[in-house]
Design brief:
With 132 residues, the protein is α+β, with helices and mostly antiparallel strands. 34% of the residues lie in helices and 23% in strands. It is built from three helices and four strands. Strand 3 and strand 4 form a beta hairpin.
């Protein structure tokens, strides 16, 4: 994964996507601004001082239950494909849990489709933000 250049200023890129089939919002944030992230995910009770990669879940955004992944590509640690898969796993699992979806280790197609959709949406947004 290639990051174009490090940035010293604060930044906040947001994409909100309606989740197919399961409903709700999938929010992708590329940011190093904890205040804007906390405002987006409606999180007054938690504090994130250093943004690298994080998942927020089960909050309301525009009157819909929402699931959010945050990546700071300009942190000193690189955001790798593994980091993205890690956060997609959290977001996908929380969404499925909220829908009372029982994991099926033999027939895991529904889980695989959901998480691959999330990964594809992150990649599309990375391309739009010129991160790939």
């Amino acid at each position: 994964m290639v990051v174009r250049k490090k940035r010293s200023e604060t930044f906040f890129f947001k994409r909100v996507i309606r989740i197919p089939i399961y409903f709700g919002n999938f929010i992708i944030l590329f940011s190093n601004d904890p205040e804007k992230v906390m405002k987006t995910v409606d999180c007054q009770s938690c504090e994130v001082k250093n943004l690298y990669a994080h998942t927020f879940h089960n909050f309301m955004y525009n009157n819909l239950e929402s699931f959010c992944v945050v990546f700071n590509f300009w942190d000193s640690l690189p955001i790798t494909m593994g980091t993205i898969v890690h956060e997609v796993t959290h977001a996908g699992n929380r969404l499925m849990l909220s829908r009372e979806f029982e994991p099926d280790w033999i027939n895991d197609e529904a889980e695989a489709y959901l998480k691959s959709w999330m990964g594809d949406e992150i990649e599309k947004f990375m391309r739009k933000c010129n991160l790939l």
